[in-house]
Amino acid sequence: MTDQLRTIARYLAFSLTAALAAAHGQSIKTGPAVGEKIPDFSAQDQSGHEQTLKSIMGPKGAMLVFFRSADW
Fold first, then answer.
1. Is 51:44 a contact under the CB 8 Å cutoff?
2. Residue 58, beta-bridge partner list
3. Cα(37)–Cα(61) distance, integer angstroms
4. Residues in the chain where the model's pLDDT stays below 50
5. How far apart are CA 57 and CA 62, in angstroms?
6. What does the H/E/C string look like for the chain?
7. Which pLDDT score is estimated for 7?
8. Per-residue pLDDT at 50
9. Chain-wide mean pLDDT for the chain?
10. For residue range 19-29, what is the model confidence (pLDDT) as tens digits?
11. For the whole model, what pTM was predicted?
12. What φ, ψ does residue 58 adopt, rounded to 5°?
């Protein structure tokens, strides 16, 4: 199975799970809620530099976007 097919299969499985949970009045937590505090962390950025929550936090907070590209 190719990576693209695996990605589609995972998306469909997650969508089905979320739909079934919603049908039964349950919710699936996919991440912190807006305004919720998260623990400090460190991770490498696209340039290989280590970043921490404190190093990326601005005066109004921070927004992280995780994007998986097929080009990697």
1. yes
2. 61
3. 10
4. none
5. 5
6. CCHHHHHHHHHHHHHHHHHHHHHCCCCCCCCCCCCCCCCCCEEECCCCCEEEHHHHCECCECCCCCCCCCCC
7. 82
8. 93
9. 79
10. 777 776 666 66
11. 0.42
12. -100, -175
